[in-house]
């Protein structure tokens, strides 16, 4: 995760003094939590898995393959996103054998005992390295097929700046051609696009024009999309639907979005308090059962993150996105159901 999130200034200006009203339907949807490991005081991997189980958290995202964590997940049924490190994409793109070795080492020994759902080919890749994403996905898919592994989908995790013209949401379009190619591959394999969605960064970047209520799913005014007539009551929905609009324009209207990260820091910076973080995260979990105006229905969503990670680089907020302290006590009360 980084501190710069793509967001249209035009969109931000249009959100002046807005708020939110959320209607929460009855229903059950699994909500995952991202398990970052950039800390020197975190619990054992087996204790972490038990913490997921005891809190009813049904899905996990890890950013690199971790044998100890994956072994601890055996037989639990917890769904897993496994990341491919950004710094090995060049090799995996150029060498199908390297992709096959990655699958042999990091997927084949664990399925079906570990419920691996998605492989995230890189996280928030930008610049020239984005050209490696498509060939790595193709090579990973070929390696999975050669190993007779079914049900594991290769995708990539993107931040919002892969989309431009985000206001109104229906105007969203991919900013670079590589994303159109990625979207078409996802459409052909039935895999979702993994999207990291952070109203927090948009809000602190333009507090003059974006209200805290609108950013945190709280009550207030509504915003219609003049092109579709759809009405937006929170920033999260508008961000997600701008990505859906880009998928439509890329000829991949059938591709779903999995929100692979979303959260709010509880300390360390602007508007980072325990109370606001709890409000955002709890409302996010509830809202995942509802869907967006463009795509009603449940949204598979991963809260960022499980723990405060004391060795994360960047702003102090980066170390304070956790729902739990490293001693396994809750930063704030939260219901993951």
From TrEMBL:
GO BP, one annotated term: carbohydrate metabolic process
PROSITE patterns: GLYCOSYL_HYDROL_F17 (PS00587)
A Pfam family the protein falls into: Glyco_hydro_17
Identification of the protein by name: Beta-1,3-glucanase
Signal peptide: 1-30
One function term, GO molecular function aspect: glucan endo-1,3-beta-D-glucosidase activity
Species of origin: Oryza glaberrima (African rice)
Keywords for the protein's UniProt record, in alphabetical order: Glycosidase, Hydrolase, Signal
Domain of life: Eukaryota
UniProt similarity note: Belongs to the glycosyl hydrolase 17 family.
């Amino acid at each position: 995760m980084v501190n710069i999130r793509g967001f249209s200034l035009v969109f931000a200006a249009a959100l002046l003094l807005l708020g939110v009203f959320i209607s929460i339907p009855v229903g059950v949807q699994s909500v995952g939590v991202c398990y970052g490991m950039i800390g020197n005081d975190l619990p054992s991997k087996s204790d972490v898995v038990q913490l997921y189980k005891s809190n009813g958290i049904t899905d996990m995202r890890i950013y690199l393959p971790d044998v100890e964590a994956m072994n601890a997940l055996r037989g639990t049924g917890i769904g897993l996103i496994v990341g491919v490190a950004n710094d090995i994409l060049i090799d995996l793109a150029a060498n199908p054998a390297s992709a096959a070795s990655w699958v042999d080492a990091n997927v084949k020994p664990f399925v079906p005992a570990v419920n691996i759902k998605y492989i995230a080919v890189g996280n928030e890749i930008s610049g020239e390295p984005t050209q490696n994403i498509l060939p790595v996905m193709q090579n990973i898919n070929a390696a999975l097929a050669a190993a007779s592994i079914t049900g594991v989908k290769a995708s990539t995790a993107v931040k919002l700046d892969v989309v431009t013209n985000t206001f109104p949401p229906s105007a969203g379009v991919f900013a670079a051609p590589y994303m159109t190619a990625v979207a078409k591959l996802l459409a052909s394999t039935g895999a979702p696009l993994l999207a990291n969605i952070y109203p927090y960064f948009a809000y602190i970047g333009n507090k003059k024009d974006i209200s805290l209520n609108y950013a945190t799913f709280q009550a207030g005014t509504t915003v219609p999309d003049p092109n579709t007539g759809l009405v937006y009551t929170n920033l999260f929905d508008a961000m997600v639907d701008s990505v859906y609009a880009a998928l439509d324009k890329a000829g991949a209207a059938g591709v779903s979005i999995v929100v692979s990260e979303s959260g709010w820091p509880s300390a360390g910076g602007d508007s980072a308090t325990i109370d606001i973080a709890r409000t955002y995260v709890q409302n996010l979990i509830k809202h995942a059962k509802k869907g967006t105006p463009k795509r009603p229905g449940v949204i598979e969503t991963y809260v960022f993150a499980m723990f405060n990670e004391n060795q994360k680089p960047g702003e102090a907020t980066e170390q304070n996105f956790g729902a739990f302290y490293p001693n396994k006590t809750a930063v704030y009360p939260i219901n993951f159901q």
